Amino acid sequence: MRATVIHAPHDIRVEDVPDPVVQQPTDVVVRVLRACICGSDLWAYRGESARKPGQRIGHEFLGIVEQAGSDVTGFRAGDLVVAPFVWSDGTCAFCADGLHTSCPQGGFWGSEGSDGGQGEAVRVPFADGTLVKLPAEAASDDRLLTALLALSDVLGTGHHAAVGAGVKPGSTVAVVGDGAVGLCGVMAAKRLGADRIIALGRHTARTDIARAFGATDVVAARGEEAVAAVRELTGGAGAHSVIEAVGTEQSMRTAFGIARDGGAVGYVGVPHGSGTGLDLGDMFNRNVALRGGVAPVRAYIPELLPDVLDGTIDPSPVFDLAVGLDEVPAGYKAMDERTALKVLVKP
Amino acid sequence: MRATVIHAPHDIRVEDVPDPVVQQPTDVVVRVLRACICGSDLWAYRGESARKPGQRIGHEFLGIVEQAGSDVTGFRAGDLVVAPFVWSDGTCAFCADGLHTSCPQGGFWGSEGSDGGQGEAVRVPFADGTLVKLPAEAASDDRLLTALLALSDVLGTGHHAAVGAGVKPGSTVAVVGDGAVGLCGVMAAKRLGADRIIALGRHTARTDIARAFGATDVVAARGEEAVAAVRELTGGAGAHSVIEAVGTEQSMRTAFGIARDGGAVGYVGVPHGSGTGLDLGDMFNRNVALRGGVAPVRAYIPELLPDVLDGTIDPSPVFDLAVGLDEVPAGYKAMDERTALKVLVKP
User: Fold this and answer.
1) Which domain holds residue B193?
2) ipTM score
């Protein structure tokens, strides 16, 4: 089959690789209908996260089960399924707690020895603990299929940030980061009943989506200027719930700078860079909590799926460029250069 | 009157100072019956927290209202009252939220221009928003009076850590710090229904109190050895709720080291030292939250007071040395040298 392989920073290729097959009785093989490129894939693309030459890449996909191992009970050939961005056994204490990302048998698509999502097919370990079935009729609805793909990462990750930030009905929420995750954070905050949602962003194409997703205010500034603007919008106090969807020192500083005393920063931006951006003394004096991390999206799919299916929420607008598999390298380039927000891949 | 004054590191004196009087119509003057020395007072004593020569010190006290300003409605001369370690106006949005420590008109006893708790009397600003009335009959019950004094800081601070750590009925909790706050954290965790409470400490006099307060296990180790021991006690997973009651880099590292993935560290140890001890990448990968800070004990007194009054909880054993006002300097020395756990002051 054809799949995306990363050889070095900025060297992404689509190549012939061995066809995946069921290796364990708990595996299935999924033929990919939709995949996409994640902002966090760019850390590998830019060389900020190490990859071995030849590793697969891509961790978001949905598709059709092609082959199922003998121990798989929940899926059979022909089922339409979505995969969260980590696989998990579904049977351990962490999976039972809804923290599938800490499953001792879990792993990330594209890690060494595993398939990546940006390919024609994927071997899925622990299929019963990992995949979620989708209605078969969604396969023929292009818009819905795209929206459902967001369940594999960005929508659940935005939701995780909103949960970590403690969004409640009536909350005032601020969102740092105008990428697809930040925009899904806006959507999640709205869905959880936030009354006021302040999106930080300077790209009108993105802030327009933020407004469509529920942002009531847009702050087109960064750093100290953004902090001052959010404080002014909130009577000086800041937002009780802040979603941090970038992962840099600067974005973390901004997030705490706009957080209200007693509030929380829900962070899902993969931390990168040398420092944390955290001022523990300030967090302590103002009782601002930090909660979040890698999102256990598998746990959230059952809650979010019905709202996507019935159209209550539609995250599909975060995908603003669609490419075929052979154009994936161009897709990375477009996201790296910020000419695309999030790239959809149709193998 | 006589009051404790800090002139320089290790130079604590009890001196004649002006008698406090009502200055604002919202003030009262409280004659101190019981005060005490806090672990955080030692940072000033050791020169790790800056003080201007001549500042008062001490932030925990209870006593009898001696004089009340004309606008004070909740208290009159003769009332027995306890003061939380910050004053607060009781009328702002933060006080309404239960975050009295962020009250814009609030302040700490012993800050410049204010009285400290370790003296014969204290001028209390915003008395209606600050003080809590106690039953008059408690004044004649020495043991109860000592227990009630814990409401001014250590008990509410231990409770804040337990709340921050997310202690729930059935929880497994680990407590880093065997000082009075850590021990009150044990008590608070037990009160909130924790099933298993692992206290870290190497001083049997202290861990005996921890056991009396509800600890089910004691780990007499520090650092990596303590992490390994707690992990072994918890089947490798760690404690879902960790109370951090020290405030050093090392204690924070230990706290996160023994926290279960998906859990939380509730921190109330005043951060000191150059670094934070936080590994943001590890927190992110394991979804361990950090929540806490300076405890809004005023908010907790109404909840905790009935349990102290009826004997459901009795924090008085944390006070293991009682001194008169003139012996306060010796009390600091005893706590600094760890020959006393927490020093009670009877002016």
Assistant:
1) 158-292
2) 0.97
